[in-house]
Write a structure and sequence with these properties.
alpha+beta, 6-stranded mixed beta sheet, 21 strands, 446 residues, elongated
Length: 446
């Protein structure tokens, strides 16, 4: 969300104007310029989506020949430098490559260290010529780390951040969810007590409602609530998250391992919240935190001039909003999802780390749990057998005494016990009729 979203600490610098960058015209096999694997995959994906070579070139800031050349390749191939002739520097090349990144590719510093520490007796120009392709490769790699400028409604980026704030006078850690729209840079932010799956899914639905729709794809870091690992090079999605993505119809995508820089828009959004919203504020509780955060988003974040787009996010959002997939009217996944649970021996079922009672006659049976607003509804063979308010915390229990064995036995006794026999009144019993004034007198005497 802040102006410079290129990852820090890359080393070499590229001359930039807006989102563009200039680097040496490296050739790959004499055909096309250097393109990282991530950019190559993006080229192919955009082509498959129906974009022309020219449209892809404009969107990714590449030459059309470069796009055409990489589309012709069946697989990505890394850039490899041609073998250089043996020189006095050859024995030091491995050291040179490792050290170059640490001194920001300064040929002068590398030359001085080679002479002073490694006994190098060659010339400075040899070192400078050896460093030049290393610097060019690093610049090319840094460009693949830039976020791709995406079309309206194409992609949003999702991440968590943590902030320490004062809630009710005590220091507390709040987990901040951020979803940033790739084109407009408008963001949805919300604080939670934790980053568990229930919070993640609820935050998504709140964001969709806030924007009035969703993007075609959402980009994530490799959080465990989203992906469990890989198998044969393909992601193994968390089953519940996968069902959530299918329910809403978006395509989840992952950053490359150890390359969170590809999620630069939302990473900057997290930093922006930490630096611009949090300092100097105190909050009564988490609800107050979110109320202030929402107001700040409207009054500050949406209205500032963004450092990369040079537009206000709320103004640029006007262009993106029509491209979002509308979500209004679609049932909440959290409420539509049916959870299967087996009733434990203590006649409780576990839901989101809390436990809720059901009639003890259902011990060992499978029941179905759905959420209706702030209530869990538990059914057995279609019959509603229990309802409980959703517990906000963790490791808590909600127990209805009427579900327990004691209540069952008591109900059985009342249902099947013989009715008590009362002696029949005499056939001609005379009942004394008293004046009500007698009772008034008794009360006065008491």
């Amino acid at each position: 969300m802040e102006g410079n979203e290129v990852a820090d600490g890359v080393g070499p610098r590229a001359d930039t104007v807006g989102a563009r960058a200039t680097l040496p015209a490296l050739a790959h096999g004499g055909e096309t310029a250097v393109v990282g694997k991530e950019r190559w995959e993006e080229i192919r994906r955009l082509r498959q989506s129906g974009l022309s070579v020219s449209a892809i070139a404009r969107q990714l800031d590449l030459d059309r020949k470069t796009v055409r050349g990489w589309l012709a390749k069946s697989e990505w191939q890394p850039y490899r430098r041609e073998e250089v002739a043996q020189t006095l520097l050859t024995p030091h090349l491995e050291w040179l490559e490792a050290r170059a990144t640490q001194v920001r590719y300064s040929a002068r510093i590398l030359y001085q260290e080679l002479v002073a520490q490694r006994g190098y007796v060659g010339g400075y120009d040899t070192v400078k010529n050896a460093v030049r392709p290393l610097r060019a490769e690093a610049v090319a790699a840094s460009l693949t780390q830039r976020r791709f400028e995406t079309a309206p409604g194409q992609q949003a980026q999702v991440d968590w951040g943590q902030v320490k704030v004062r809630l009710g006078g005590e220091v507390a850690r709040v987990h901040v969810f951020v979803m940033t729209l790739g084109y407009s840079r408008r963001a949805y932010v919300e604080g939670f007590e934790h980053e568990r799956l229930s919070s993640l899914l609820a935050a998504h639905e709140h964001a969709f409602a806030h924007f009035g729709g969703r993007c075609a794809e959402l980009l994530y870091d490799r959080m465990r609530t989203v992906v469990l690992g890989t198998e044969d090079g393909k992601p193994v999605w968390n089953a519940t998250f996968d069902a959530f993505a299918k329910h809403w119809g978006f395509e989840p995508r992952l950053c490359r391992p150890y390359r969170a820089q590809t999620k630069g828009k939302v990473e900057s959004g997290v930093k922006y919240v930490k630096r611009n919203f949090v300092p100097g504020r105190v909050f009564r509780d988490l609800d107050d935190f979110n109320a202030q955060l929402h107001q700040w988003s409207q009054d500050v974040a949406d209205l500032r001039v963004h450092g990369t787009t040079h537009q206000r996010p709320i103004e640029r959002f006007a262009e993106e909003a029509p491209a979002l997939v509308a979500t209004a009217g679609q049932a909440s996944f959290l409420e539509a999802m049916v959870r299967e649970r087996v009733v434990a021996d203590d006649w409780l079922v576990s839901i989101d780390a809390n436990r809720y009672s059901v009639p003890c006659r259902l011990i060992g049976k499978s029941v179905q749990v759905v959420r209706a607003g702030g209530t869990w509804q538990i059914r057995y063979r279609g019959e509603l057998v229990a309802e409980h308010p959703v517990l906000a915390g963790r490791h808590q229990s909600s127990i209805d005494p009427a579900h327990g064995p004691g209540a069952l036995a008591r109900n059985a006794r009342q249902r099947f016990a013989e009715p008590l026999e009362r002696p029949a009144p005499p056939a001609h019993e005379e009942v004394e009729v008293r004046d009500l004034a007698i009772y008034e007198q008794m009360l006065e005497a008491a």
